[in-house]
UniProtKB/TrEMBL annotation:
<dbReference type="InterPro" id="IPR036513">
    <property type="entry name" value="STAS_dom_sf"/>
</dbReference>
<dbReference type="Pfam" id="PF01740">
    <property type="entry name" value="STAS"/>
</dbReference>
<dbReference type="GO" id="GO:0030435">
    <property type="term" value="P:sporulation resulting in formation of a cellular spore"/>
</dbReference>
<protein>
    <recommendedName>
        <fullName>Anti-sigma F factor antagonist</fullName>
    </recommendedName>
</protein>
<comment type="similarity">
    <text>Belongs to the anti-sigma-factor antagonist family.</text>
</comment>
<dbReference type="GO" id="GO:0043856">
    <property type="term" value="F:anti-sigma factor antagonist activity"/>
</dbReference>
<dbReference type="GO" id="GO:0045152">
    <property type="term" value="F:antisigma factor binding"/>
</dbReference>
<comment type="function">
    <text>In the phosphorylated form it could act as an anti-anti-sigma factor that counteracts SpoIIAB and thus releases sigma f from inhibition.</text>
</comment>
<dbReference type="InterPro" id="IPR002645">
    <property type="entry name" value="STAS_dom"/>
</dbReference>
<dbReference type="InterPro" id="IPR003658">
    <property type="entry name" value="Anti-sigma_ant"/>
</dbReference>
<feature type="domain" description="STAS">
    <location>
        <begin position="1"/>
        <end position="111"/>
    </location>
</feature>
<keyword id="KW-0597">Phosphoprotein</keyword>
<keyword id="KW-0749">Sporulation</keyword>
<dbReference type="InterPro" id="IPR014237">
    <property type="entry name" value="Anti-sigma_F_ant"/>
</dbReference>
Length: 111
């Protein structure tokens, strides 16, 4: 899993590329948490445009970041979700707590 980080105002934008599964979830957790703490991010946008596969470990990684940023009074948003990953989010009920946008720009504009 490759992660690219970008800060805009108080928003940490994380572009994920690869498979978000049991092999990569821990690394994703650690790297994103480090960036949240280092940059004092208030909001996070996870860009799923490069994610080809996600399993339950990926769901756990996303929900963990949601909880972490929520404790800080912020929000987590997702963007660019493909059809397969979208189905995982729907089945897991994540859209009840996490807002989805079609693009990063759309998400940034709504924060």
């Amino acid at each position: 899993m490759f992660l690219d980080f970008n800060m805009q105002r108080d928003i940490l934008i994380v572009t994920l590329k690869g498979e978000l599964d049991h092999n990569s979830a821990e690394e994703v957790r650690v790297k994103i948490d480090d960036k949240i703490d280092m940059n004092e991010a208030k909001n996070i946008i996870l860009d799923f445009s490069g994610v080809s596969f996600m399993d339950s470990s990926g769901i756990g990684a996303v929900m963990g970041r949601y909880k972490k940023i929520s404790y800080r009074g912020g929000n987590l948003f997702i963007s660019n979700v493909n059809k397969n990953v979208n189905k995982i989010f729907e089945l897991a009920g994540l859209y009840k707590v996490i807002k989805k946008y079609n693009t990063i720009e759309e998400a940034v504009g709504c924060i």
